[in-house]
Write a structure and sequence with these properties.
- This protein has 342 residues and is an alpha/beta fold.
- It has two domains: 177 residues, Medium-chain alcohol dehydrogenases, catalytic domain (Quinone Oxidoreductase, Chain A, domain 1), CATH 3.90.180.10; 135 residues, Rossmann fold, CATH 3.40.50.
- The protein has twelve helices and 18 strands.
- It binds nicotinamide-adenine-dinucleotide and zinc ion (2 copies).
């Protein structure tokens, strides 16, 4: 089969002919229809510091996908050939202390599809039955293919109550724009979204931002607060991973408010801790998706009419994957989807 392999320890990703995935007793073989390129795929494509320390090529990339079940191992009970499925990309052990207390998203032994095991930028992918998710037919293939980042957005956005709250989102990237839609859906009052990329802020507007703040044009959060007549934000969703954005957020939170931190800040990020301590802020780190509450919440929001289509800006044929990585590399896009099945 054809697959996109992170073959060499250098910038790039390569299309190769590889053997079909191996299938265990409890695995499901999926013919991949569509797969989306994640920010993490871009990190590995660029072969940045994180990829050099967290991955071990060669492996097949890709963890955001939708496809059709074509085979099931002898131990599989609840998934059937012909089912349209996507999957939770974190494969957890089920035995560690956290797994046993219902906190699989912080399992001690997580494997990640498309990062620490072969993924879905391939004609076929094999996934344990435990990770398979079937979605209602009314949810489109495009949306089904981006459930993984939508899940990061959902987990972060719903970390604290939103109804009637003023929300600041720093980073209108692939996840921040989806979080904007979630906050609107969940009844937030004002949603202010910051970025330094006008294309992404346009998407945030379409997803329901009350105001956007383009730092590259000298716009400020303080001006947005003045326009809205608010004294600070009740909920902060940090989705840029940029130290400047994080500090901007800390300075503009209402006293006693909450920040959910998804963006991966550099380890040497400086913070004015007095602002956190004396304003009694809570900062909650977010990783992955809760298993499986996040998935139920996502499905229900989509069935309830949350429209993610503004977030998806490009589709490419599988053979044209390079165009997809190029546009991701430029940042001039929202979600990019590869059409894997011909
Ligand atoms: N914790 C987790 O489990 C998890 C999972 C997925 C992604 N992430 C992280 O979450 C973050 C968002 O992911 P994504 O896929 O949306 O990434 P992304 O690159 O698409 O989005 C980040 C956005 O932040 C913007 N930005 C950069 N500097 C800024 C600044 N000073 N102020 C405001 N915005 C700024 C960028 O222009 C970009 O649009 C990243 O840091 C990513 O690594 C964490
Ligand atoms: Zn992803
Ligand atoms: Zn575990």
């Amino acid at each position: 089969m054809k697959a996109l392999v992170k073959r060499h320890r250098e910038r790039g990703i390569w299309m190769e002919e590889v053997p079909m995935p191996e299938m265990g007793l409890n695995d499901v073989l999926i013919k991949v229809k569509k797969a989306a390129i994640c920010g993490t795929d871009l990190h590995m494509y660029r072969w940045d510091d994180w990829s050099q320390t967290h991955t071990n090529p060669p492996f097949i990339q890709g963890h955001e996908f939708v496809g059709t079940v074509v085979d099931t191992g002898a131990g599989v009970r609840n998934v059937h050939v012909g089912d349209r499925v996507t999957a939770e990309g974190h494969i957890v052990c089920g035995h560690c202390r956290n797994c046993r207390r219902g906190m699989g998203h912080v399992c001690e032994n997580t494997l990640s599809v498309g990062i620490t095991r072969d993924g879905a930028f391939a004609e076929y992918v094999s996934i344990p039955e435990s990770n398979i998710v079937r979605l209602k037919d009314s949810i489109s293939d495009d949306f089904a293919a981006i459930m993984d980042p939508f899940g990061n957005a959902t987990h972060t956005a719903l970390a604290f109550p939103l109804l009637g709250e003023d929300v600041l989102i720093t980073g209108a990237g692939l996840i921040g724009t989806m979080a904007t839609g979630i906050c609107r859906f969940a009844g937030a009052k004002n949603i202010v979204v910051t970025d330094i990329n006008p294309i992404r802020l346009e998407i945030a507007k379409k997803m329901g931002a009350t105001l956007t703040v383009d730092g590259s044009k000298g716009e400020t959060v303080a001006d947005a607060m003045f326009q809205l007549g608010i004294r600070g934000f009740d909920v902060g969703l940090e989705m840029s991973g940029a130290p400047a954005a994080f500090n901007d957020m800390v300075q503009h939170m209402y006293r006693g408010s909450n920040i959910a931190q998804l963006g991966i800040l550099p380890s040497d990020t400086k913070v004015n801790w007095s602002d956190v301590i004396f304003n009694a802020l809570t900062i909650k780190g977010i990783t992955g998706r809760r298993m499986w509450e996040t998935w139920y919440q996502m499905e229900q929001m989509l069935l309830g009419g949350l429209d993610l289509s503004p977030v998806i800006t490009h589709h490419f044929k599988f053979d044209d994957f390079q165009k997809g990585f190029d546009i991701m590399d430029s940042g001039q896009c929202g979600k990019v989807i590869l059409e894997i099945e011909k």
